[in-house]
Write a structure and sequence with these properties.
CATH superfamily of the largest domain: P-loop containing nucleotide triphosphate hydrolases
Largest sheet: 7 strands, parallel
GO molecular function, one term: GTP binding
Number of domains: 2
Subunit structure: Binds to RNA polymerase II (RNAPII).
Helix content: 40-55%
Bound molecules: guanosine-5'-triphosphate, magnesium ion
Protein name: GPN-loop GTPase 3
Family: Belongs to the GPN-loop GTPase family.
Organism: Coniochaeta pulveracea
Radius of gyration: 22 Å
CATH architecture of the largest domain: 3-Layer(aba) Sandwich
Order of helices and strands: EHEEHHHEHHEHEHHHHHEHH
Strand content: 5-15%
């Protein structure tokens, strides 16, 4: 029996847990079953109580206290512990039928998505180990407000691409919190961020405005590493961003969907992409109406 799941990932505060909550509400309203797995050992409050919570296996607070680790080292320790105790996941998930969408709410530490091999191991276990065999996709969230700062946007896009390459599962990139940029960025301008390329740096309004004001933008103003502002306004920093943007353009892997978690249509649209990625609908049996529903329907006519 196939199982279906989505890993909701992305940097801290990107709106992962909010999206999970909106997705669960939407699934419930549409009479679809879901199973919510919290894999963030530091998460405390939830709109929907998790069906499985990593905190029942290990708590970040205990790890930090007992092992003398900081929050990031503690989180890595928690995931290493999870990988040594995968029965915790198998026992809870193995009996789920193909009707369920399993939603994994991930933590926001960026290290997990960029260079430590923990998440690839976990994704491999969930999707390919034979124990669970979940048809899994990743939903990587990045805050849409990042588009205001080109350097931030490309650095976020690079980490999305890094997660994509490391995880080797079908992957959706999503610009979250779209409500925050509505009215601030014109629709036509926003389009350019959907499939990012180097042209975004060439017509950066900040550079255009500085050039217009007669500022010299093609030289470095300072090479003193302490003078962060001057470095970030200098030509070397722009060359670095251009190199990052070119890399992203050359790989041509990242394009974004848009999400406003408070808008049900927007959540429904993202869900349709998730369903499509994991081919959820292909495995579903036609559902028969229950007797009372059938009678009710005829009475209405
Ligand atoms: N305006 C707006 N705010 C949002 C949206 N989604 C989330 N937020 C807010 O962003 C903040 C962070 O949201 P979370 O859902 O906790 O983000 P997260 O990615 O789970 O955060 P961590 O688990 O700490 O990494 C909260 O204050 C949310 O209310 C959205 O679509 N629009
Ligand atoms: Mg969260």
């Amino acid at each position: 029996m196939s199982k279906y799941g989505v890993m909701v990932m992305g940097p801290a505060g990107a709106g992962k847990s909010t999206f999970c909550a909106s997705l669960i509400t939407h699934l419930q309203l549409n009479r679809r079953s879901c199973f919510y797995v919290n894999l963030d050992p530091a998460a405390e409050s939830f709109e929907h109580p998790p069906d499985l919570d990593i905190k029942d296996l290990i708590s970040l607070e205990d790890v930090m206290e007992e092992m003398g680790l900081g929050p990031n080292g503690g989180l890595i320790y928690c995931f290493e512990f999870l990988l040594e105790n995968l029965d915790f996941l198998t026992e809870a998930l193995e009996s789920l039928t193909e009707e369920y969408l399993i939603i994994f709410d991930m933590p926001g530490q960026i290290e997990l998505y960029t260079h430590v091999p923990i998440l690839p191991q976990l994704a491999k276990f969930l999707s390919r180990s034979g124990a669970l065999d979940i048809r899994l996709c990743a939903a990587y969230l990045l805050e849409a407000t990042f588009v205001v700062d080109r350097a931030k946007f490309f650095s976020g896009t690079l980490s999305a691409m890094s997660a994509m390459i490391m995880l080797e599962v079908p992957h959706l990139n999503i610009l979250s919190k779209m409500d925050l940029v509505k009215g601030q960025v014109k629709k036509r301008d926003f389009k350019k961020f959907i499939t990012p390329d180097t042209s975004l740096l060439e017509d950066d309004p900040e550079i255009v405005a500085r050039r217009k004001a007669g500022e010299q933008v093609d030289d470095d103003q300072s090479t003193d590493p302490q003078d962060r502002d001057a470095i970030m306004r200098g030509a070397s920093f722009r060359r670095l961003n251009t190199a990052v943007a070119s890399l992203i353009e050359d790989f041509s892997m990242v394009s974004y969907l848009k999400l406003d978690a408070s808008d049900e249509d927007s959540v429904a649209s993202i869900l349709s992409y998730i369903d499509d990625c994991i081919q959820y609908h292909e495995a579903q049996e036609p559902k028969e109406l229950k007797d009372e529903e059938e009678v009710g329907d005829y009475e209405d006519e």
